[in-house]
Amino acid sequence: MQIETGTPVGERPFGRSWEKESLTAVVKFILETHHVYTRSAIATLPPLAAKVRGRHGDAHPETVVVERLVTRLVEDLEPHLMKEEQILFPYVLSLEAGAQTDSCFGTVRNPIRVMLGEHEAVEGILGELRAVTGSYALPSDACESFQALYTGLEDFEADLHRHIRIENDILFPGAIALETTG
Ligand SMILES: [Fe+2]
Ligand SMILES: [Fe+2]
Fold this sequence. Notes:
75% helix, elongated, binds fe (ii) ion
């Protein structure tokens, strides 16, 4: 069974030479691919995790932990996406457009520091998920939903790693450089 979480983004961010692209193009890519995928996954994975825990919780107590970790992921990611979309990304776009950049946060380094901390927290939860599931090893009695949950979580992990890398390694340093040089 294929989990309905949209299509993970694949290797595109690093198949494309971002150094030559504007930060506006980077932001557009992040929004249209990673944020769309993440929103779809965080809507689909929690009910699936609850279903699997309901069916297999007694025989496989790790599914109780998986559900709790998925809930934490969603609770972290929803406000994170919103902060990027409503505060940081619009600021980066106005920096690049050379517009008057009035911000409530001083330098762009401040919201970036917050985003970096939140990325680390989410990576930590993904690490806990990988540990508690034995790297998504399915038990022999796993039903289709169980398989769909582990496949969905593994796809989600891969996409989130790429998402975080393009933000940490390309967008954030680019925004700091732009703010510094004007
Ligand atoms: Fe993001
Ligand atoms: Fe982010």
